[in-house]
Task: structure prediction
Amino acid sequence: MTASQINFADFVKTRERSASTSTILERAKEQAVVARGVEMIYHSGSQVYQVLRGVDLTIQQGDIQLLMGPSGSGKTTLLSILAGILTPTAGSVKLLGQEITDMSRERLAHFRLQNIGFIFQGFNLFPALTASENVELALKVKGVRGASNRRRQAQELLNQVKLSDRVDHLPRDLSGGQKQRVAIARALAGDPQIIMADEPTAALDSHSGHAVIELLRQLAKESNRTVLIVTHDPRLVDVADRVAYLEDGVLKE
Result:
């Protein structure tokens, strides 16, 4: 064997060891979301509609996962199932190592409250409450005691999303991007490990959308949060760790 052949063999072995180590590290990461064989069937009179077909999806802790696909493909239905809002016709879902498809309604509601933060396309802020009060209400629902304590935490969260100068503003006095940042601060109330977002940039212009995208990336990576985003927005692809595409109820990565 020549020297060049030996060097090439060593190179191949090194690459194989590197790939093996990478695989082991990937497996060692905690799995935040694990869906197996998820199906969803709706009945309307004599009509049967199968929205999801044997969906398998694994999301690692701290990853940003995008779920993309055309309108009507079942994205929001899948998000609702992964969040424990809908029960699938078949299949199972584990969040943070716990099987949620077998949980009682009461236990599931408590688990969701403690572990998942939600961000919506339409912001869903209470119009009569200030930015701070919207976040304080979420903290109260999640069991944080003491009005002054909730106020302090709400201001810290709003500062985290760069809205420290808007804490006492009503939603009508905020731009679209600012409203979405209030919604993100509210989603962070109680320090959930998983953030689920449904079209978080759809109602925003290019500048505001970019700011929200960067904020979601920062929140995921700095705090090791798992972020699952349903979106049509191709700008989000740049910040994602993984992208899954759903079409006709079938998921492809």
